[in-house]
Amino acid sequence: MTSTIRPGSVEWMGERLARKEDLRLVTGKGKYLADIIIPGALHAVFVRSEYAHAKILGIDLAEAESLPGVIAIYTGESIKDLINPMPQAIVKPNLSAKYPTFWPLAVGKVTFHGEPVALVIARDKYVAEDASELVLVDYEELPVVLDPEKALSPDSLVVHEKDGTNEIFSMTFTGGETEEEQKLNEKEVNSIFDTAPVVVKERFRTHRTGLTPMEPRGVLCDWNESDGLTAYITTQRPHIDRLALSDILEISAERVRVIAPRDQGGGFGVKAPFYRENIIIAYAAKALSKPVRWIESRYESLMNVGQERDQINELQIAADREGNLLGLRNRGIADNGVGTTGVYWGFVMPFLGAIELPNAYKWPKADISLKVATTNKACLTPSRAFGHFPTRFAVERCIDMVAHKIGIEPSDLRRKNLVDTLPYTSVTNEYYDSGDFLKVWDTLTAKADLANFRKTQSEALKENRYIGIGFGCGVELSGVASELLVPMENQPGYGAATVRLDPRGKVQVFGGDAPGGQGHETTTAQVVASEFGIDPADVVVTTGDTGTTPFGSGSIGARAGSYFVSAVADACRELKEKITRILAYDLEIEARNEHFEFIDGEVIYIGDRSKKSSFLSIVERIIMFPINLPKGEVGGLDATAFFEAPKPMICFNADCCIVEVNIETGDFEILKWITTEDVGNVINPLVVDGQMHGAIVQGISNTVFEEFVYDDQGQQLSADFENYKLATAADVPNIDIHYATTPCPHTPLGTRGIGEGRPSSIPGTLTNAVCDALAPFQIEINELPLRPNSIWEKIQQAKQA
Amino acid sequence: MYPAEIKEYHRPDSINQVFEIMAHHDEGESLLLAGGQSSMQAIKSRMLRPQCIIDLQNLQELKTVKVESGTLKIGAMVRYCELAKNSALDKNFTGLKDAATHVGDRQVRNRGTIGGSVCWNYAAACTPTAVLALDGRMHLVSSKGDSRVVKADDFFLGPLDTAKSESDILICVSFEQPETKAGSAYKKWGLVKDALPVVGICAFIKLDTSGLCCEARIAVTGMGLGAQRATAGEAALLSSDGDPKSIEAAIDGICATIDAPTDLSATSDYRYQLIRNLGFEVIQIAFKRASI
Amino acid sequence: MQIKDSIGIEMPREIVFSALTDVEILEKCIPGCESLEALDEMKYSATILSKIGPLKLRFKGQAQLSDVTEPESYTIEGQGSGGPAGRAKVTARVTLEDVNNSTILTYDVNAEVGGKLAQLGGSLIKNTALKLATQFFEALNESLVNSNRKPPPLAVPDPSPTLSASRKILIAGTLIAGAIALIAAI
């Protein structure tokens, strides 16, 4: 009946609290999509294209349909007049681009290896898969478009004929809105480069890699006439999915409910798009009036989603001999794959990547442009470090090259040019609201002790050992403000939370964004516990159910620590105001909200600490016994708050790593990884450390191990973990994390959202360290993945030269 | 991915029972399940479609490690993790221990077996390579009742291809204890720790009474052909004491005769470099272990 | 993927060519061949059960001939589908060189594999292809040696064979070479 009080431990903000989620997750009691049972559910298996590009001449379903247990089979032809095609406004950015028309199943032709061609619905998953093998698709092969640069040439075969071009999107990000302004800017930048004492030009290539959540996708849909459609989806954005399903299937929105399961095995952006599978499974459930269930296999997942990065950046930096940066020019080319995925269409990632190219440095002038090419590969899906993993790699590497050319330490060149006064607006109009980059940087360099390292390094060289140090940094989004999200994705950026107190003094929090394991249940509970002076155990968080939560654009762009918890705090404070108003009235004192303390399960008047109430009694009194209230007051304790910061917000991190390279084999070992972070005020260091560890490990894994490979026929060759290699715990170093905090002045708790963009500084930092180790050979590596094989080859080439 | 229909599953208690079950199915329709670390993948992806699975987990007679009159006999169902800590391998057959200790990961090592590994003979695998270098003998019993022993040189025919027929069961893998001092070692290179070998190399060195090499066997893997003997390298080691020059000559011989391909994992040149690098270490360690 | 190999057969090339066009011999020699049939004059189909170790894949294929110079050379194109396991497409150039009444047969194959086969790994596929091709030619060689075939007398070839007869030979040869190429790709 009473709140459990932890005596003396009232400051939940900053507490290294073990996560509430973890016991159930590590003991097999998590409830994921695949654990949700609806009796009578049918099982769905997709037939997917075996070709990268081919006409569908016909599909023979006779044998498949006649298999006992098969209920229905859909093809593009059978549904194209019954389901509205994409694009749909709700999942289309406000950006000028080509938006190819497509249905959830291929119509007329297939455009990538793995594209859904037919959907088999059967009484169980085994029959469904048996039947899927019996579906005979007659293909006529077409030539494939695989190279993004060739795809952009005017004589290339066009993948989406109606669009007339493979250039799905292009933009110039600097100079202004009009073409005239941009041309003028280009001229000015040209003249900077023409006269600059130091110019470095290089072509940087980042391969196709991305994120592989431990849990692949799934959809479970249930339809009945009275409730309409209930869709369980492994999604980061249930509220958006709901609107999309409503529009596309023409089911009135009040009869569509999307529920993201309480537990998801990772999202990392991969579960943020609105996918074809959502549409066709929901359609099938409605058409058959039976629940339909689809669980993605790992094979399907690797074939269809998680592919990102894949950019060429022709980057140029101009500087003076003292190391001041004078200008930046970039021509970016992104390999988008087919582009047919809702919300992001693949190109929104490189779009943001170009915006974030300037990173944390002051550039007097820049000329940045991007072209995104359609090819016969799976569409890019968002992956942590959304779009800017390749551009960060390019900038961080190029800065090192500039430093080498001038003959100064790369870390000194960085420090010289770091933005030193915030707020700051970058050359691409990105707003950096607050923070102290120099403080973070100096904290890092103090730990790195470069001078000492250089001594160690030259000693090691005498013993024929090659060690190196590399630096990098990253300005990352802390949530995505409406100012950016409305043009970028046609969606609002505010955070929203409902906080509901009950007569037992417990708190329920409702949030519309669906987490993928970041620990939102715990951090939210800590915030609420801190506000009300209760225990996090008394706080229950419900997320991701459109039927019960306020609107949220999704768990994207580090929204939780920036926008969501801010809304939670605001809602708590609104309720605290009401509680203290009524308590003051009950205690017959003249007091305002700031005269009360919520601590240890009590609400205490600071002026006379004998005047107080237990949290439980005052809450119960307001909800259950709302008589003798102050004039104008009514009972109940329930508040919904919406939080929007006045301007977009950021967080900042800096990395340093030390490696040793074996020049006989090109193998390298990361000896040390140090990082300093400004994540604003920290709610739970355990959670934040976990975010940092995860991001750095994913960054290393992307940089070195993971690669999606397509052969010259567009066949995807990395559809299992034997070929798509993930780093194991044995492959990554211990990570030394330090915090150099500047509380965010724009959020109620001073917190920043963190973790989404974090992997972006990894490829540059690591590659810089390897190049530093190989400095005696004057090797500059500008292509990823960073592998022993290619390092060794570069050493051989250098030896021969 | 869900398997194609499997009509029967059995977990017999004796080899005779295994044959009884096999007799009810056409040749090749039943699958003998050892550790399942390779076959389960193939079944789930439907590359294999067994009608009947005969699970060997209860066959105690296949799980022993013993030394019988100078022969080390390792039961086909002995798991990698057991090999990794079994002292019977310590004197001469450490190369097999090296291999077993680093297959895949902990979970794989807890389930995978030596028998399953040699019978699968994957295109790139550690255990068959060690067994080949160590001159292992495969003891087979057929459903017709006849038994035969096949030397490793004759057993490993190519990737996924061995001399074991579909009516055979592998009982054990045996190794003759050398009369003289001997030592062995295995090393591999993969991109990720303990990954499938991009290059794997095992050396087995026997020394005569004056400490000079009287027999050398070298096997490599990672060239896409499963485990291969590198006989061209072996001759250079004879009568040497493992001096660097002889080892270099041996490596030269290997590189001259083994065909290293370029594929997604590595270039041909890099494979040769790895053969040089790992091969040198492995032969050196084998000599060292032999001399103790 | 490219596969090029040569094999020596101790028979004059006219005999080899003729054997290569003998449907009965070929059905016996192609490893795993379950059936051969003519769809029409230029196209043939075959069903072949291929073994890659424990993996058994049944391929249904078709082959088509072009660019024929009897008894020296021809080009064949074949396609085969292994159902859910994937597919193979093959173009091969087969040349027979006469060396002292023996034949050097060279096949130069360009193969593309797709679907799950492509994901199995090039080395495995290439190795299997070479193995099957070797098996085929060894079987062919043995079949020729064991048969009672004698080298034909050095007669002038019939200047005007009936169109259908020569075409039949060529088609059979096509089919065979196509099947070989298909196997080579498998």
Question: Features of this protein?
Answer:
heterotrimer; B: 292 residues; alpha+beta; Enolase-like, domain 1; 3 domains; four-stranded antiparallel β-sheet; 14 strands; 33% helix; C: 186 residues; Alpha-D-Glucose-1,6-Bisphosphate, Chain A, domain 4; seven-stranded antiparallel β-sheet; globular
What does this structure look like?
The complex is a heterotrimer of chains A (801), B (292) and C (186). Among the domains of chain A are: 217-295, Aldehyde oxidase/xanthine dehydrogenase, molybdopterin binding domain (Aldehyde Oxidoreductase, domain 4, 2-Layer Sandwich); 308-482 and 647-800, Aldehyde oxidase/xanthine dehydrogenase, molybdopterin binding domain (Aldehyde Oxidoreductase, domain 4), CATH 3.30.365; 494-643, Aldehyde Oxidoreductase, domain 4 (2-Layer Sandwich), CATH 3.30.365. Helices cover 30% and strands 23% of the residues of chain A. Chain A has 21 helices and 28 strands. In chain A, the strands form seven sheets. A seven-stranded mixed beta sheet of chain A has the order 3-5-1-12-9-10-11, with helices on both faces. The longest helix of chain A has 29 residues, at 559-587. Chain B has eleven helices and 14 strands. In chain B, helix 4 (94-101) runs antiparallel to helix 7 (126-133) and helix 10 packs across helix 11. The longest helix of chain B is centred in the C-terminal third of the chain and has 24 residues, at 268-291. By secondary structure, chain C is α+β, with helices and mostly antiparallel strands. Chain C is built from five helices and seven strands; from the N terminus they run βααββββββααα. A seven-stranded antiparallel beta sheet of chain C has the order 1-7-6-5-4-3-2.
